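We modelled the chain as a single entity of 159 amino acids. Its sequence is:
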Amino acid sequence: MRLLASVLCLVAVLGLPRTAHASDTANSTVVVTAQFSTRTSLKVSTELLRFDVADPAQAGTAVVDFSAAARTPSGADVVLSVEPLRGIEGPGGAADVDAALSFSGEGAGTLAGAIDVSRPSVAGRWSGSGMRTGRLVFALHATAAGSYTLPVRFVLSVP
């Protein structure tokens, strides 16, 4: 829409030729440059990770499906990060339980790593505009059986 408005303004300023003559030999060129601002869109299946640990010898898992779209300047990086909003809550509402949390990604550009509850972790990285879909599988290794939760925020950015 902005590009169309810019072109119409340019035509109004320069004016359209009223008549053309067969003897006119000069060619004219109009150069239009458009810059688009960065735009991102992110949809995730949940922002509350829920883990059921039946046996402390095995990890509980939580899955998050995502759809990430970005319009960027040519070749710019797009980063998907996950940020814990507080500590892991364990059985009976216990806060900051003894547990280790990691993730792995499924889909182009997704990454794997450990989650530190005190800071964001990069879960995906792409170059350029487009739509990406994928899945993040979180694994919680806890010392006790039970249900665990962790609220998280996903952020899609163009640094």
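As a brief sanity check on the tokenised model: Residues 53 and 145 are 5 Å apart (CA to CA). The chain has one helix and nine strands.
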